[in-house]
Amino acid sequence: MYERKTMPNLNCGLDLIGEVLYGKWKIRLLWFIHQGFQRPSELQRKIPDASRRVLNVQLKELENHELVGKIIYPVVPPKVEYYLTDFGKSLIPVIGVIGQWGDENEVRLRELIEKNILPSH
Questions:
Q1: DSSP, residue by residue, 62-103
Q2: pLDDT tens-digit map of 42-98
Q3: Most exposed: 4, 31, 50, 68, by fewest CB within 10 Å?
Q4: Which residues form the HTH hxlR-type domain (predicted)?
Q5: CA quadruple 102, 25, 64, 79: dihedral positive or negative?
Q6: Are 70 and 80 in contact (CB under 8 A)?
Q7: Is 6 within the bounds of a domain?
Q8: Domain assignment of residue 18, yes or no
Q9: Global pTM?
Q10: CA-to-CA distance for 35 and 32, rounded, in angstroms?
């Protein structure tokens, strides 16, 4: 028996982007692939907090959404490299702007995040 997936709410661009980029590491994966880190082991080193399995799942989802492509070289052991598709490359300026906003508001964001993580006395 299979679990039937419910259709997500896709009424506007923000719903669509949320559906495609939902996942803790997807934006970073896109950015790092854009920077030239293409092998799964390189991506794992860039995002050490993520398990290899989670990264593989999120890379597969990015591939299914045609944001990244994968080349599998016929060698032993298999060598895999990821690349941004033209569709994926179109997201890079957006990710850059979001990253810049984060940099410009780093102190405030860090304080707010820490305040909400650490219990107050």
A1: HHHTTSEEEEEESSSS-EEEEEE-HHHHTTHHHHHHHHHHHH
A2: 999 999 999 999 999 999 999 999 999 999 999 998 899 999 999 999 999 999 999
A3: 4
A4: 12-110
A5: positive
A6: yes
A7: no
A8: no
A9: 0.84
A10: 5
Q: List Cα–Cα distances, 83 to 9, 32, 56, 60, 62, in angstroms.
A: 29, 10, 14, 12, 11
**Residue 13, H or E segment:** helix 13-21
Query: In the predicted model, is pLDDT for residue 119 greater than 90?
Result: no
Helices 26-34 and 92-104: angle between axes, nearest 10 degrees: 110
Question: Considering its fold, how many domains does the chain have in total?
Answer: 1
Residue 17 domain-assigned?
no
Q: Which amino acid makes up residue 114?
A: E
Instruction: Name, in order, each residue with C-beta under 8 angstroms of 100's C-beta and a sequence gap of 6 or more.
Output: none
Query: How confident is the model over 11-25, as pLDDT tens digits?
Result: 888 888 888 899 999
Q: Element (H or E) spanning 3, and its range?
A: none
Percentage of the chain exceeding pLDDT 70? 93
Question: The domain containing residue 98 runs over which residues?
Answer: 23-117
CATH number at residue 92: 1.10.10.10
